[in-house]
């Protein structure tokens, strides 16, 4: 089968992704084999290719927003049948026995497995996934629309929870890419007012079209104090900026898996009055199921830019250089919806 993998991690200008042929994987106990229709291109894939996240094994295949159809099932499966449409997300497996898993916090598992980091991901024609970690896809979404929901949507949804946004509250969003544009729609649908700070003029236009109250530059001060904020841009310098924008008792959630260093925080100006900053680590399967059910019931519109499978390296380079509005999606098989 054809696949892309990480060769030598580095800047996208050095072409860290390599394309070639890999052996078709065989589904093991509890696995299903999926024919990949499309796969979203996430900033985590970029961090992996550039070396911010060291690859967990040589020639690892990125991609953890895959939508495809079941073509074969291994022993011990039964949730899905051949031909069923499924989604494959970032969380690919947990131990189920550590105290985090036992208390319902499987996103903090001591021995997790991640799609496109530990297990080969969706930048390939075929991939395997543990059946219990695959998702059914709501019928109203095309393959291309569904792909970004599987990480951008799920992580944004968890970040929104972690931000402790009060009903009808004021939410600040820093960075406005694939995850943020979905999270903004969920927040607005719930009755919140959304204030977007991003350096991309195209993203600012998209934010306004989706109903944002205000758009400004990444380091601009919003016109009101914020009840909550989410940092999607992997820029540590924005943490004190966002903390200053929070009202008393406000919460900042940092959504990314990687963040550049955070400068010193001024206690009086940026943390006092019971402000708090919280990280977001992966997601639980319950988060994914809840997000997909909500997305199916609300007027959520994913904005996507599609690329042919042969242009995976170009998609990553465009993501690295902020040339994508919304979410990038690879069309792995021609004719994918």
Structure description:
The protein has about 325 residues and is of the alpha/beta class. It contains ten helices and 17 strands. The strands form four sheets. Strands 3, 4, 5, 8, 9, 16 and 17 form a seven-stranded mixed sheet that branches. A six-stranded parallel sheet has the order 12-11-10-13-14-15, with helices on both faces. Strand 14, helix 8 and strand 15 form a beta-alpha-beta unit. Helix 4 packs across helix 5 and helix 4 packs across helix 9. The radius of gyration is 19 Å and the shape is globular. It starts with a strand and ends in a 6-residue tail after the last strand. The model has no long low-confidence stretch (mean pLDDT about 95).
Q: Key terms for this structure?
A:
337 residues, alpha/beta, 17 strands, seven-stranded mixed beta sheet, six-stranded parallel beta sheet, 10 helices
Rg calc:
19 Å
DSSP strand count: 17
User: What is the helix fraction of residues, given as a range?
Assistant: 10-25%
Poorly predicted regions are none
First and last CA, distance = 21 Å
Query: What count of helical segments does DSSP give?
Result: 10
Shape field: globular
**SSE pattern, N- to C-terminal:** EEEHEEEHEEEHHEHEHEEHEHEHEHE
Overall mean pLDDT: 97
Strand content: 25-35%
**Largest sheet features:** 7 strands, mixed
Structural class: alpha/beta
């Amino acid at each position: 089968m054809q696949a892309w993998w990480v060769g030598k991690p580095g800047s996208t200008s050095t072409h860290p992704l390599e394309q070639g042929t890999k052996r078709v994987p065989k589904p093991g106990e509890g696995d299903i084999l999926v024919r990949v229709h499309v796969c979203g291109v996430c900033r985590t894939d970029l961090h992996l290719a550039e070396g911010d996240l060291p690859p967990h094994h040589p020639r690892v295949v990125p991609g953890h927003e895959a939508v495809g159809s079941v073509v074969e099932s291994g022993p011990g499966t039964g949730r899905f049948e051949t031909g069923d449409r499924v989604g494959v997300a970032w969380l690919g497996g947990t131990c189920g026995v550590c105290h985090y898993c036992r208390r319902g916090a499987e996103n903090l598992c001591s021995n997790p497995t991640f799609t496109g980091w530990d297990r080969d991901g969706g930048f390939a024609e075929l991939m395997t996934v543990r059946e219990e970690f695959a998702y059914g896809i709501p019928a109203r979404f095309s393959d291309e629309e569904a792909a970004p929901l599987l990480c951008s949507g799920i992580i944004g949804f968890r970040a929104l929870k972690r931000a402790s946004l009060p009903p009808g509250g004021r939410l600040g969003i820093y960075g406005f890419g694939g995850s943020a544009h979905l999270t903004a729609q969920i927040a607005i649908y719930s009755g919140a007012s959304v204030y977007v700070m991003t350096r991309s003029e195209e993203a600012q236009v998209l934010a306004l079209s989706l109903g944002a109250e205000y758009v400004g530059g990444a380091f601009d001060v919003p016109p009101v104090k914020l009840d909550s904020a989410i940092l999607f841009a992997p820029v540590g310098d924005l943490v004190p900026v966002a903390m200053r924008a929070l009202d008393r008792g406000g919460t900042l959630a940092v959504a990314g898996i990687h963040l550049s260093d955070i400068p010193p925080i001024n206690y009086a100006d940026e943390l006092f009055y019971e402000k708090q900053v919280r990280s977001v680590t992966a997601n639980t399967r319950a988060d994914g199921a809840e997000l997909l059910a909500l997305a199916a019931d609300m007027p959520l519109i994913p904005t996507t830019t599609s690329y042919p499978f042969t242009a995976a390296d170009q998609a990553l380079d465009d993501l690295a250089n902020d040339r994508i509005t919304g979410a990038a999606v690879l069309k792995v098989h021609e004719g994918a919806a």
